[in-house]
Amino acid sequence: MRRTVPLLVAATVLTGALTACQGDAGTTSSAAFDPATCQGGTLSVLNQGGITHLDPARLYTSGGGNIPSLLFRTLTTRNRQPGEAGTKPAPDLATDLGTPSDGAKTWTYKLRDDIFFEDGTPITAADVKYGIERSFAPELPGGAPYLRDWLVDAAGYQGPYKQPAGIKAIETPDAKTIVFKLRKAEGDFPFLATATQFAPVPKAKDKGVDYEKHPVSSGPYMVASYEQKKSLSLVRNPHWTAKSDPLRYACPDKIDVTSGLDAAVINQRLVTGAGQDANAVTTDAVVGPEQLAQLGTGSALDKRVARGEFPSTTYLAFNTKKKPFDDQQVREALSYAINRTSVVNALGGSAVAGPSTTFLPPQAALGYQPYDYFPAGDSGDPAKAKQLLPAGGLSIELAHENDDANGLGPKVAAAVQDAFKQAGITVTLTAIDSATYRDVTGKPATQPGLSLQSWGADWPSGGPFLIPIFDGRQIITAGGNFNLAQYDDPAVNAEIDAINALTDPAAAAKRWGALDAKIGKLALVVPLTHEKDVYLYGKNVKNAVPDGWRGQYDLARVSVK
Fold it and tell me: Is the domain of 327 the same as that of 475?
């Protein structure tokens, strides 16, 4: 899951598995940059989407994501490099990538000695264990679901507030050692250990759902102030040291995040670079049409653009437990009716999105295999859709976010509504506040029949695309569910396990692609688009180089000095 996201299938799979495009960061990003002397100044982050949650249990990111990575360290992290090196994990709180035993069903980690919370308290294995256990609490939904399936006897665990005895499959024999007991072999555990679930939380400071008002930092910055969906101000954590954390450069003295801005306004401010905007970046406002028209002309703006490609799919999700979406023929009809060109345009055009007929984005490392079982052409096939629909057409509801910041808002919803209208399908649009959208759609009891969704890869393999969305063992009835089709096929579950056991990346990729193609025949989702990323940055910003995995510059490594 993106901007969020949400990790990888075994270290051997990642060697040579570059899926994100390294951008040309221009001369201002690469010239004379020295991480040892980059400290100083205030970095401004201008964003559309609000920071809806600041609790590591509720964040779905790999390597701590972007903004969360400034606050939270995890057992391992992304290597934060451009190109192929950036697709690999690296030690973070741990001294190494972990020691497997029992055929990779047991993973042991040793913590560093020089790691502290913002109050100077040493970080212990018990803090990491408690942080993970909190992520199981139904009061704190939204985190990556893998551990619920992977850990021995953890599927029914309801978090430390209801079950304070904790998870037996996580052992802490001493303050510096943490051991994970898995029910099956998982060679990719070092990549899962980058998720923010693995951020330490001091039990004595936990305030449940209110913890996110001031989470305790383990990273280079700590919270000075936070207003949900509006602003976040970060200052240096005095107990963090660069020696203990060489991958995060932590250049600015202060980082101010402003949310709720219009994308066009953000890009214009970055282009103009007046005052503090010269020290500004964005993590969610891709370049708009006006700025795209200026790129590639040799202008000064060409030197302030970063291009990347994060593996992400925007799609329509069916709840197959609700009528009429329990009928595969109806789902196929909607697949024929969709106009992907209008969706691409609603997202900003072909420079920032491309049409998709497969759930896996078109990247070889994911195992992409092209297929189009319900060909709709550029603008849909309403005639074919009508052949599959009941006489008199169909009336349905489509849930979407109430703003367009995440690409799941009114613009895309209206494009879908219009396409379906051409096929005699009446669509009523239902807007849900973006702050609660994942909570509502991710709980089977409140999940709508049809909703706009997006999914980003947790690691460069087909697994992180297909497992959370189609593995029946990932269905979570209490909330935080991503298998929105509520699809549970034992044969598919078994194939997922078999692929996860492979160590040959080419063989694994081929089978992930084949599995995607097999599931695609069921029309459990309607793939709409895949993501392309073009980001601007301010005139004073340096080292704004997209990493090899997220396709986005890393706030932990940029400088404004």
Answer: yes
